[in-house]
């Protein structure tokens, strides 16, 4: 019997969980992210009361690609600005209280990605509330945003200090040219099927506070219980992609378009269509990629243990090793990833940078910022010891600075690429707390 349906699984209070925590984003999508500064705590609470009707909860029974949903989350400084009691603030975990900028060395935001280089207002005490809205089309998005604009117009004392439009690119792929958003974990007691049929559902406490996690324990939860229960943590990041540098590197290290496509796939772990190398190692397979029952139906240990198909250091294998032989337990470090593209695509075939800002707004969801998000960034993305390649980093998302390397197993000999530049630059990031619906009402009704 599927563990997700087991009678022993705790009942997850779906109706109290903001949709952004568990519902996959619509495909196609358009959206907008906002950061707000609260200059008056009473105004901040009034804004929450006006936003509550617009914040969808739980999982819809209808097609999730229809309609729009909004979500609202808070930084540590934002909770302070709303007047959350110090005793409650002190009950949040250290990474959240410190903020992402203070954790830059831990997660590899150095060099070009150092917080000193971030886009304002990222990393400053002014970022208090993060609001997002996603929809399958522009008309639905505008309808959702009008409710948010009306709430802001009626609430002086809260200012919009940053916003970013996102949308699916015309190709349906990321700026690097690869399909995204394929893998989604199965979560016990939630009812959303995971994308990998081999994956045993993970405990709800890995993603939502108030439920046992993979250790069998309850994750530490902010106090009082009404504030913490059914909440989760978000690592929100604006990531600029150096598409021209990516194309130049592939071109310089291959001798034909076919080799170029294969090298890119080896570094990502999938072909541009989304077909995984583990299932289609020699060529792209659009038919396989279009089949949701097959596109994520694979493991590494039984299908490709030595990495001859998908290298152990490939991006998708690093951030989700599945059943691969690694140092550690992969299930302890799963997160939910939400990626949305921003900026114009670099035209096909162009090898020179056009100066446009393009990339990904990534939202990474977990109940343990340190054990999940920060561990993946420090140990899996920016280190290679766990797979037996000391000194190597994620070939796509790692910080290289022109000195990186990546090993690609092969027969009769393996290939080792040198002098990798950094292809992804952090333009900003924040740790946020996404409360449940009861917690939002509690925050909106705080008294001085």
Automatic annotation (TrEMBL):
A Pfam entry, by short name: DyP_N
| Residues annotated as domain DyP dimeric alpha+beta barrel | 68-147
**Where are the membrane-spanning stretches?**
none
Assigned GO CC terms: cytosol
InterPro entries per UniProt: Dimeric_a/b-barrel, DyP_N, Dyp_peroxidase
Q: Which domain of life is it from?
A: Bacteria
Q: What PROSITE patterns does the record tag this protein with?
A: DYP_PEROXIDASE (PS51404)
MF annotations from Gene Ontology: heme binding; metal ion binding; peroxidase activity
Q: Cofactor(s) for this protein? A: heme b
Keywords in alphabetical order: Iron, Metal-binding, Oxidoreductase, Peroxidase
Q: Give the matching NCBIfam families.
A: Dyp_perox_fam (TIGR01413)
UniProt family annotation: Belongs to the DyP-type peroxidase family.
Q: Name the chain's protein.
A: Dyp-type peroxidase
Its source organism is: Saccharopolyspora elongata
